[in-house]
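Protocol step 4 of 6: structure prediction from sequence.
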Amino acid sequence: MELNISQNNNSQVLIYGKNIQSNFYRVVLAQVLVCVFLYINLVMLFSFFKKEAFRQDTRYILFAHMLFVDTLMLIVTDLGMLLMYFCILVPGGYCILFCTFMETLTFYTPLTLTAMCLERYIAICIPLRHAEISTVHRTLFGVLLIWILGFILGSTSLFTVLATQPVSFYVESYICSYEIMLIYVWQSDLRSCICLVVFLAIFFFIALTYVKIMFAARAASVEKTSASKARHTVLLHAVQLVLSLIALVCPFIETPIMQISFNIFSDVRYFNFLSFTLFPRCLSPLIYGVRDEKFYSVFCYYIICGINKSVSPKLQM
């Protein structure tokens, strides 16, 4: 069964163009928040690359990778929102590549969170083998696997479009959103199954990691403060994971709403953008930029461009 989402998408351009003129403040607010989060993320990435000690620590390598992915995700999703806000039509060929890239980025964050929880589990529950297991080489290989798996999970609709659509599809212009790639009903069903399996698998793994660390915190052989901090970190990762994975479910809520009312659809998409794209990205600075003492001292130094010299002695690592 074939969907008519792309036709409905374009038929609503004029309606949406009139509606957004009364909602200009939404875009202004979103751009301010995006700029703030981008600045914080870029400063954190700069702090990571400035210190050799961070680049040799697998925990910070995974954190830097998540920051990099979050930064790309902010830029891409914000660009997508601006394209829709200004009703800019994009040729289908460019649009499907853009949407596929955005979809794969959505999977990278939960996969990276899983790797970070695994690293904390090894550090707390298998401390004697942590240096042996959690090496820089293995961490970089794990990052490569994350990118490969994320691409596989996020590109199923791309291959379907490439295999079924005529040349005219790629030259026709659309309001660029992922919905134009959902040509058949079974694509939505497949996407739902993939999201559900990914959510359950990762959430179960993080829950198991949390329980293991919690039991390790009670053991006499484990340093209590480190275990407690790791447990809280994993819990924050779980919250971040839930918010990130909800972003995978949002299109299934938005698509039927778009068929009913495009005005309501624009409101729902804006809410989802703020709640499940922007907000999860602000948890990364909270988890590492504030809670981690070593990283916090370096971050504070660079966030104000090195003006506060009182923190500079701590930079010698």
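Step 5 (inspection) to follow. The mean pLDDT is 78.
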